[in-house]
Sequence to fold (425 residues):
Amino acid sequence: MIRERKYQKKAKVISMTKPEAIPELQDHSAFLAGTHDFQTDIELLAGSDFVATILETVMLATNMRFAGVARVTADRWVACRTIDEIEFGLAEGDEIPIDSTFCQNVRDTSEMVIFNDVATDPKYQGHPIAAALGITSTASVPIYRSDRSFFGTLCVIDTEPKDVKSPRAVAMLRMFADLIGSSLETEERLEAQEQLIEHERNLVQIQEEFVAILGHDLRNPVAALGAGLRQLDKEPVTSRGRELLVLMRASLHRMNELIDNMMLHAKSRLGSGIAVTAVPDAPLSQALQHVVEEIRFTTPEREILLTVDLSKPVSCDPDRIGQAVSNLISNAITHGAPGSPIQVSVRSCDKEIYIEVENEGDPIPPELQKNLFQPFRRGNETSEGLGLGLHIASSIAKAHSGRLSVSSEGTTTCFRLELPKLNVS
Fold:
């Protein structure tokens, strides 16, 4: 489809009109406006190769030298697509007074206007509209949308007598008018879909740029807060001050975690996913120990148990796996029962690595489990955060050709990160 052409012509009355033939045509001031309010209809039909093919076929079959589709309302006639071989003077976007056309009658009666030769036709002989426009033969066929609302007309015109009243020609004209009416809905749906896709593409780009900029610009003040907290740790502080420092460290850890998730999500959307760099014989045990110790330091009120049983070397990106596990532990802290421990276990089995994070608390409903790893989804409407943690963890698993799953039965919820045998040397 041709979408680039724009039709923003000024409305005009066609040049061969004789105002004295029809009194209503003597004042054309109402038709000197600028861009049409039917712009969408004009562009829809003027950019349709399908409609162009129909008009060319009609002209070949009837030997008529002008064919067009017009948008017709109670008081308007606007050309939306035309093929003109007789220099009739009507192009896309041109408008003529409705009273100067036969289309008003077509709209009012739902019947086509058709004659081979106006000079001999018993019904239209001497008709002022034909005389004003210089029409000798014509056919004006109603076009309806699929809901049977009137759209306009399919018009064929010639300044010479032509045989358009034959049964075959009439049947063909009606069929093509129906096809144009049916195509309107298809074209409009395609146009709407293209606009929706473009809108969503722009929206996604804006969101991604916003997240990336936000994450980048937050790092400096967060780093400054971290430096301030480290300095305060070296200063004499009251017991109450120590308690506040613990809470502040926990909040700072959470902020850093959110920034990391936002940045990683933005990079994965702008690129082709989360990139990982597998390291042979990766120090996975040390990376996970560091993650657990860091979270213990920031949330001393929660008990986090770590069990590691790796009998063989692992090939993976330890920093990314550490980030995934950190997200899973943070999720357990947020949603788990406050007084219960969080169990982190790492083991190798049949050349596969299993990392499980288990906590006690309310079960996750099955309807939430289905979309739990989607971005910007949260366990419940009252959860804090952006809902990126589990999505990032799942994406890291996929980047390692593994997967993240969840089971939640009774009071126990367990997230399992599986790394396949490809990652085990």
